[in-house]
Amino acid sequence: MALKATRDIDAESPLQDALYVEKITRLLPTYSISSRTGDDVVLGYWLTGGTNIPATSFRRLRQSMSWLGAGHLKDVVQAAGFEVAEIIPLERKPATSAEKAEATPAEKVEEGKRAEPEPNKVFELAGRPELAAFFNEHIVDIILHRDRYKALGIEFPSAVILHGPPGCGKTFAVDRLVDFLGWPSFQIDASSVASPYIHETSKKVAQVFDKAMENAPSVLVIDEMEYDLGLKRPPSSADSALTALRQAISAFYKRELQCGDGSEAYLVERSPGVFLLSVHIKDMATLRLEFEGSTLKRRVGNPNIHMVLEYAKSTGVVRTLVRGGAKYQQMLVEAFAEHVLGVKANAHRIKSPTLDLSMLRTGFDAPEAFEDGFSMVQLKALTLLSPDTALKIECTAMQSSQQRSVHELLKEKLPGPLEGQWAVTAAQVNLYYPPEPGRTRPKVVTIEVTSKGRLNLHKFDAKMQAQLEGYLVAVGILQKGQTLSAQELPPEADAVSSSSAFED
Prior knowledge:
It is globular, with a radius of gyration of 28 Å.
């Protein structure tokens, strides 16, 4: 009621960070630098206590708030001014007496209100007419006219695969279809089924399938299943494996840059379960001028192309550092998978290690750093990209700024990018140790991170790397499953994450 009443008098102010004033039953807008979100998301966030589920996605909201009952929840959503899609039951198996006894009164009332299937009902999906037409042709029409299709030898639709980049609306479309059908739905995703224990993942998947069959007809949603199969196995350090790796990388550089006649590769276990691969490739010959004593001489040499790969067998996470961009990183990961891990990994199966840097708009707050002996933490530099990607700015706090955070300086000098919809694409964080006795300058540890997943943590020892990963987890840039350090994961938590690099 407060949301609707507020919108009746103020239709424009963003409400994602609004305060609820109980005395007047209104939401008080506040100044915010966070991106504006729709009112349906605001309502879902308030109802669930912090989960970004749109109120218009009634099925997901109902799953998160099963304690309220579908009827009461529907009333709340409608009172806020949002429509709830009509739920149409389609030949659901009658509930047993035990199931009826377990159902809440609200759910039983809703079941009694459901209408009979409408043969001419058409599924609609706002903004996606082609996808809606596909669902109607291959799913809805077959279900609504099952006798006609059965006579033609066509049974229920089995499986539909939706593919596309993150954020294109795959999950939203499925939610709308499930709401339209009114069937019970069951979901399989990384957080619900993955497990580091042998056979445990397959057991959990089987349990979900059993529930879906018990409640047939039903919908089984496998959301981003590719991430559930992160490749986790010990790499081979045999000479034959490293030789095949070098040959594959050399062949790539010969095709692309006409170099790579010589190569070296080293694989070491830098910490338990975390491996470091270092590869050196012979670059094209260059002419250099060097002094030999007081005489200037010309020398011809072949520079070194150096690349580094880190791999954690417990999480399946891979990090690369190689010059040349995504094409070269992909080459290195594919070669590592095939020749060192023994699995042929197609390009589309390699996951992009994207990271969210949006929280750096307000600085880098990691209290754990001071517990580890650092005396100061400074957000040194930020790279920001305009919403239309037409302009990029790189901002660095100068030495004269007395180690102030770059976000503080931006708020004073150039607040627009931080307050607008500019994306943070790269950052540099400095952590300062107190000066050693007899010295005035502190020792500096620098973290460099990009939104595409590049980290410079390979240059630090295992202890320092684990500490820095912990800071990134604490501020929300990394998830626990995106770390190389296995100890970052809870003992019984799922070890598979969306940053796993391979499928098995």
